[in-house]
Amino acid sequence: MSRFHSDSVTPASSVVGVKFDDGVMIAADTLVVYGNACRYQDVDRVMRINRNTILGGGRDFADVQAVVRTISHKIIEDHCFQDGHHLSPKSLHSWMTRLLYSRRNKRDKLDVDLVIGGMTPNNKPYLGYVDSRGTALTSDVVTTGFSRVLVEPLIRERQPRHRPFTYVEAVNALRECMKVLFYRDTRSIEYYTIGVCSRDECKIKGPFKAKTCWKIAELNTGF
């Protein structure tokens, strides 16, 4: 058995990613919990990896930071070759599945949920997910944690049947998701950031504040 403690000390909640017609978006709130306390409330859990890749991390944020450091070291190593090669989102996704699966087989797993998105070399949007066991998938909509059962159905319901989201539709869907998560998830706050990666830009926007209305609270009964 691993000599390391397996419980998360600083867990973080949901990450939500969607494709739109010209790129991908990943959103997450800025809260990292210490035990049951909302200790760190201004943490960027969506990160820009390079000019064509963004990453969102959930579960144990210390392990997320360890993963990001490993990626940073790889980027520096690749840069030393000066061959113009940049880590693509598909390559990063594939590498993370191997890394996390290997750590899990050594019984020293990294307790993370990662959402990886960006633009491929042929300018196609790419969005994938990988968990602490190395289980991976790609989809137009990717969610982690509580958002899998709470907000993914909301996004699927909003998703146009015969075309991808537009930029505005994707932003509005993510705003609604972050509002619902703040209402229903005890480990979520109203502040969140959105990473956008498209042909024209790759940046982290925010933090934004969810527009909430607590008049509905008096209608909640049975809890």
Automatic annotation (TrEMBL):
Entry's Gene Ontology BP terms: proteolysis involved in protein catabolic process
Predominant place of localization: cytoplasm
Location within or outside the cell: Cytoplasm; Nucleus
Pfam families: Proteasome
Domain of life, per lineage: Eukaryota
Record key words, sorted: Cytoplasm, Nucleus, Proteasome
Cellular component annotations (GO), alphabetically ordered: cytoplasm; nucleus; proteasome core complex, beta-subunit complex
Oligomer and partners: The 26S proteasome consists of a 20S proteasome core and two 19S regulatory subunits. The 20S proteasome core is composed of 28 subunits that are arranged in four stacked rings, resulting in a barrel-shaped structure. The two end rings are each formed by seven alpha subunits, and the two central rings are each formed by seven beta subunits. The catalytic chamber with the active sites is on the inside of the barrel.
Function: Non-catalytic component of the proteasome.
Family: Belongs to the peptidase T1B family.
Full protein name: Proteasome subunit beta
Organism lineage string: Eukaryota, Metazoa, Ecdysozoa, Arthropoda, Hexapoda
